[in-house]
Amino acid sequence: MRIAVLALLGALASQGQAPLDFWPLTLAALALLFVLTGQMRDPRALAFALWAFGFGYFAVALRWIVEPFLVDVARHGWMAPFALVLMASGAALFWAFAGWVAARLGGGRWLLALALVGAEALRALILTGFPWALLGHIWVETPLAQLARFGGPHLLSLLTVTVALALAALFRRYRVQGLVVLGLMVALGFVLRPPAMPVADAPVVRLVQPNAPQSQKWDPVYRDIFLNRALRLTAEGEVPDLVVWPETSVPYLLNQIEDDLSLLSDAARGAPLVFGIQRWDQEFNGYNSLVVLGQGGQISAIYDKQHLVPFGEFFPGARWLGDMGLTGLADNLGRGFTPGVVSGPIEIAGIGPAVPLICYEGIFSEEIVTGDSRPRLLLLITNDAWFGESAGPLQHLAQAQLRAIEQGLPMARAANTGVSAIIDPYGRLVDAMWIGTEGAIDVPLPEALPAPPYARFGDWPVFVLLLALAGFGILRGRRDSN
Length: 482
Known about the structure:
Elements: H1 2-13, H2 23-37, H3 43-61, H4 73-76, H5 80-104, H6 109-125, H7 148-169, H8 175-191, E1 204-209, H9 214-217, H10 223-235, E2 242-244, H11 254-257, H12 262-268, E3 273-280, E4 286-293, E5 299-304, H13 318-321, E6 346-348, E7 352-358, E8 377-382, H14 392-407, E9 411-415, E10 420-423, E11 429-433, E12 439-444, H15 453-457, H16 460-481
Parallel strand pairs: 1-2, 2-3, 7-8, 8-9
Antiparallel strand pairs: 1-12, 3-4, 4-5, 6-7, 9-10, 10-11
Helix pairs in contact: 1-2, 1-3, 2-7, 3-5, 5-6, 6-7, 6-16, 7-8, 7-14, 10-12
């Protein structure tokens, strides 16, 4: 019965993630978790309790994971329930590990909370990392998200467990301390409320959203329809300063159409055009690429995606398992993609240096490389059509907003089926096209802010803080036991 209650609490805790963004429910569920497990000292019992809570949390938060398997139901549909169960179970193991570690170190709510934050950091880093639905993401639509400028997503996760502990304290003898912490969080929210940003004389960016359903995107019957749609949307209206198309928006290999790129540049009418496409190199390695096209169809920059999606863009061991057809759901080149090796920024004429990100790369805060000079913007192209109209695209958008805050940079985000948006350096949507719409928007690009601490120092200050707090908690626990 307790396990079922914990799994239900975990499911409720997930509602702080997009699209509901009901963060008070996450805090309340975590507070109840700390109350129910606060007296547990057996490592196995606490680990199993945290696993149950985590399973409920991830099963609901990551429910969108079934969508890619439903694009081709006949081939992959049977995998969908297994994918969800395995993903939720595997992610919950990190939380189980947190429970085990906390109990081994002496137990207590504070050590458990810190262990949870550490487990979330591990989940973001090991086995290529999967920092999706982190506990800190519940703050994206609140002023407290601005704390990410100082410590990124893990500082926000630390904030989450701290507030949950303060709520839990209301049920114990530490009510005054809990109320003080909650009051400080409310006051901090008012202090961190971002100011308005001027956009006068800003360059205008056109985001093109062709809205190609994944089931039709590569179909020879439809692909030219979507490409011509993107060309038409690019050629309409006044000429912007930059045009951005989504990931793989050109449904051909770059090698096949290099002589026809003038058609794209003609539609852009002199503006730089950024588009996504696949390509081969001389050794027939396949790449998922972002291309910057100038006047006359001349390519000025190519960026190849470096952080590929496991089991999506490549299958571990595909060189040996390719004969079995195991190359990844998103692979249509036959042998999986190859990761790029050259990082950004890339230069865009008339705009300045941009940090290129392709889809999945937008969820890894610690991997964004801005270079020695301050970039003008983050440039993210994605194809969220894989996830239909589920929670996935909106959770992906929330992470893009967080990347803008962390780096103090505006972001131009072009998505095949939405959400395409210009995001200011405070993480606010300046303008957007929502899921399932076709069109283009011209939006002034906000100014970049001075580099915030997170852009300069990354996660290390937060990791040091976590270790210091854990050390203090262990010493205090041993002192109290003597």
